[in-house]
Amino acid sequence: MTFATAALPADHPLTDGRTAESPLLRAARGDRPAIPPVWFMRQAGRSLPEYRESRAGTEMLDACLDPALAAEITLQPVRRHGVDAAVFFSDIVVPVLLAGVGVKIVPGRGPVLDEPVRTASDVLKLRPIDPAALDPIREAVRIVVGELGSTPLVGFGGAPYTLASYLVEGGPSKEQLRTRALMRTDPHTWATLLNWCADVTGAFLRAQVEAGASVVQLFDSWAGSLSRSDYQRRVSPHSRRAFDALRGLDVPRIHFGLGMGEMLDLLPGIGADVVGIDWRLPLDVANERLGGRVPLQGNIDPALLQAPWPVLAAHVEDVIDRGAAAPAHIVNLGHGVPPETDPTVLTRIVEFVHA
Fold this sequence. Notes:
The chain has 355 residues and is of the alpha/beta class. The protein has 14 helices and 9 strands. The strands form 2 sheets. Strands 1-4-5-6-7-8-9 form a 7-stranded parallel sheet. Strands 2-3 form a two-stranded antiparallel ribbon. The chain is globular, with a radius of gyration of 19 Å.
């Protein structure tokens, strides 16, 4: 897929200055604001009672494609918690759906494919995404950005490996056995599949940025199942291809992957300006592995959101202290907000960080 090189629109929040000096943007570009910015992955969603009320009776993917509803859900945690960024409410399989692949979100399980993609002929049936299919995404982003003022919106997409794993497995899988088997036994089909995944995610990211997102994040939820050599040879070029869809658009790019502690040094090479760190690796150690050159995001342990406040507060303080070793630090979780989280705890963390 090719994209014309173009600058951000004149009314984009980075172009007109609304978000350019926000704490998140400063940190993402390697500056260190006096107070570290904080937002939470999966902050828009099931932990909020207002979300459950808004989405009552609406299927997940239908909510993602209803611009007014998606915008409302995106804004809810900003109003409630006072976080330093909104993250666009959607799902990584939305561009897969918009490209014509049958997929649904099964409650309690996650994305499930009508027909898994496992053979060369299956891959050849995949079609490019029609740019017009992304209009509901653009409209939702415009609504959100119009409400946010100086608070930036984080756009997001699924990394090609994680998208491919859903397509090949037919749904969530902890080990991606079929996926890794395809990767090693049919390299040509594998490369074709990951290029397709990179292109649909790239188009999804680009639509969000052109409509007003100030930052993007690429999620690789399952890359931790890979060896370093497999990631480097068979996956990372496709993640770079997804980021390359943004060429000409000067927005910071965050990469977050689970279980990628042994591969962190590879991530700047795929185009990541900021590297998200999960809860397993202390930020000062992550900073060493990245040569002290890359802003970090993370990495509060989501399990401790259930802990007594003194335990959680001490942990958050330790995360901030260790993050001080990096050029800049965006405070976040080491994974997404668990659905059972008490939202008042998230608000308290924001207040604690800002204080």
